[in-house]
Amino acid sequence: MTLPHEAETAAPESGPERSPAGPGGAGSASGRSPQGAERTAAAPSDAENRSAPEETPQRAPGPGEATTTKADPADPAKPAKPAKPAAGVRRGRKAFWLVLALLATLLLLALVSAGTGAYRIPTADVLASAQHRLGLGGAPLDRVGESVLWNVRLPRVVLALLVGASLGCAGALMQGVFGNPLAEPGVIGISAGAAVGAVAAIGLGLSFFGNWTITVCAFVAGLITVSSVYLLSRNGGKTEVVTLILTGIAVNAFAGALIGLFVFFADSGQVNQITFWQLGSLAQATWPKVLAVLPCAVAGLLVAPFYARRLDLLSLGERPARHLGIDVERLRLALILVVALLTAAAVAVAGVITFIGLLVPHLLRMANGPGHRFLVPGSALAGAVVLVAGDLAARTLAQPAELPLGVLTALIGSPFFFWLLRRTRRKQGGWA
User: Fold this and answer.
1) Alpha carbon 155 to chain centroid distance?
2) Is residue 7 very low, low, confident or very high in pLDDT (cuts 50, 70, 90)?
3) Of 159, 96, 153, 95, which Cα lies nearest the Cα of 126?
4) Closest listed residue to residue 110, CA positions, set 399, 398, 396, 384
5) CA–CA gap between residue 289 and residue 291 (Å, rounded)
6) Strand partners, 235
7) Closest CA to 168 of 358, 345, 414
8) Is the pTM of this model over 0.85?
């Protein structure tokens, strides 16, 4: 049964004069005439006009584009403001400027270090002598100046550059392998093992390689130590990071006991030599020592950046890295060998120099993030800067005496390590 008012309402819908619905589905039932419905269908609605600019597809920026523009929907006449660059673009620019700053600082420090000392050489004369040696003009210094510059100062600067780059790069690799910014090359006993080799060569009076005997013994002992740590920490074909670190601590203690034993049986002259070598120094830098560390340092520094992407994946965790196709065990073994190569070569020619591998990568990580594509080569460059500056300070702070370089880096690095511990504990809300 239909009520009268319902019949009146339904009549236009069933009658032959029903107006066709517009785009919005509105006919004469809404109270409009057929002409009004046609005009409504022909004209777009205000809502559609307002939403048109927002629905317009935006082209994604290309690889070389840094910014995009976005119109203001409230005021179409207002000029569009450029959007901020993407995070990756900003980080890439920051890394570029950091590299330029580090290169400029390293060049300046090398020039200052080459001319500073008991026999002072002006920077202009250093550049003129270098141009003369390269056949680019310039003029040589006097006989004493040429000898001091090319036989004393420059070997020391180049050795500081190589040792600093090796220790900085090794520290970045160690922190990436262990996933811990507090790790450094001495954790798995490489430095202590190399020290045992050098001290044994001094205490036993070995000379089968001539002037290269101490360097060769330190390098071989460092490689043997890291191989022993790795083999002792393996279980079931796998190596756990915690077991590796604990094994390294035990090997460090054993190496310290061996060094103490050699010192106990050594005579006074050998004790002085052992003590000075343990403290770390570049005072005995020569071109043969530069050539001794050069192949190992260059090989390690060239190989290390190729593992940057895999280190980024490993930072996600071992299980996600395996799912992404990374052979974690093989990667860890390869990187430990590279770290051993870099660290043992550095310790063999400069003695035990601590905290470079800890301080440098962490500072760069704070400056430009944890990405290893910049962190690994950047740590090598920054390590060279820090050690050249440290050697310059060691030579000049207590003139005419010379501070041991390892002592100076420890004096600076220990407070930094303590601050880093407190900062990490505060960010995590405690260790428990």
Assistant:
1) 26
2) very low
3) 153
4) 384
5) 5
6) 238
7) 358
8) no
